[in-house]
Amino acid sequence: MARLVTESIENLRPYIGGKPIEELARERGLKNIVKLASNESALGPSPQALQAAQRALVDVHRYPDSAAFRLRTAIARFHGVSFEEVIHGNGSNEIIELLVRTFMTPGDHMVFGRPSFSMYPVVAAAHNVFTSVVPTSGDFVHDLPAMVQAVLPSTKMVIIDNPNNPTGTYVTRDVVEAFLRDVPPEVIVVMDEAYFEFADAADYPDSISLRSLRERLVILRTFSKAYGLAGFRVGYGVAPASLIAYMDRLRAPFNVGVLSQEAAIAALADQAYLEKVVSLNNAERARLEKALQGAGRVVYPSQTNFILVDFGRPSGELYEKLLDRGVIVRPLGGLDTHLRITVGTAEENNCLLQALEDIFS
Question: What is the pLDDT of residue 43?
């Protein structure tokens, strides 16, 4: 009998997100639940974004603008690029898949790091793309010189998440600049900057400002994290117009809905609210890091809205004990003593710290 799916799809495992609050409530009969698993915004979206979405409800019987003219125009103006250099997606994850579908064929080669965003190998396998996975350094920072060395004549794409998910670490500007110069010009370099807004290190690079270093550079951003629009699913990419034009040929029509487009436009305009979100996050991130380090755990310095913690004991057991106490965090495959913890509000973070104290005492 003929094979139903390719071997690469046969071997894939579905993406499993952070456990929903409703699911934990059903399973264990809990009411007061804190979710710190999916790197969602602690404060939620700008009120202006919610108001814009509410106003747009009267138009939901109409298809959205497939070209997202107003949204792409707002993004282009914000970043000082042209309209033709922006593409919109149903989250930045859709654009990752679109990049692979557009520019790669079975047997082409892709390079990415490990650990990194879990969807990179999924997208590659789904399209029968050959991959080289480059381990991060001992402190979980992407090894860009090693990634350059991993490039082959068949390499079409290198993708780097900076800051990195699930580690929270980042690669400095000077290292990124050297990398962009060293990768052969025919290779498409994708800088996945989903957590860009939270990065406050002086030497963290804004890749949009580095576009002069190479032509085939794609920068991905999202409204799901700092802007708090995870449920609306809006991401975007900035790249040369020639690449965007090819991707646009395969982009699904009407891929970003009416409400989502309006919410994203309003969220982008409300930079004062974004600053409030980032300020709270970075203050609470530092407090969590200090509290957990003081308890003897290994906490990796983060430039995101989550932290990676090595508890020195099986993380699956600890994860279950936290669930019993109504706290949802994220265990990670391949990191058996680590948990990824989203930075929440001060109250939510206190619940986490109290639950850990109860467990370890």
Answer: 95
pLDDT at residue 104 tops 80: yes
Integer Cα distance of 232 and 56 in angstroms: 13
Give the torsion through C-alpha atoms of 94, 97, 98, 102, to 10 deg: 180
Task: Note down the domain range covering 337.
Answer: 7-44+272-360
Quote the crossing angle between the two packed helices 241-250 and 92-103, to the nearest 10°.
90
| DSSP secondary structure of 220-269 | EEESSSTT--TTT--EEEE--HHHHHHHHHHSPTT-S-HHHHHHHHHHHH
CB 301 within 8 A of CB 169: yes
- Report the CATH number that the domain containing residue 12 is assigned in CATH: 3.90.1150.10
DSSP H or E run through 330: strand 330-332
State pTM to two decimals: 0.94
SS3 103: helix
- Distance (Å, rounded) from C-alpha 27 to C-alpha 210? 48
Position of tokens 């949802």? 328
Q: Choose one of 270, 292, 307: the last residue of a domain.
A: 270
Q: Does residue 289 contact residue 299 with C-beta atoms inside 8 Å?
A: yes
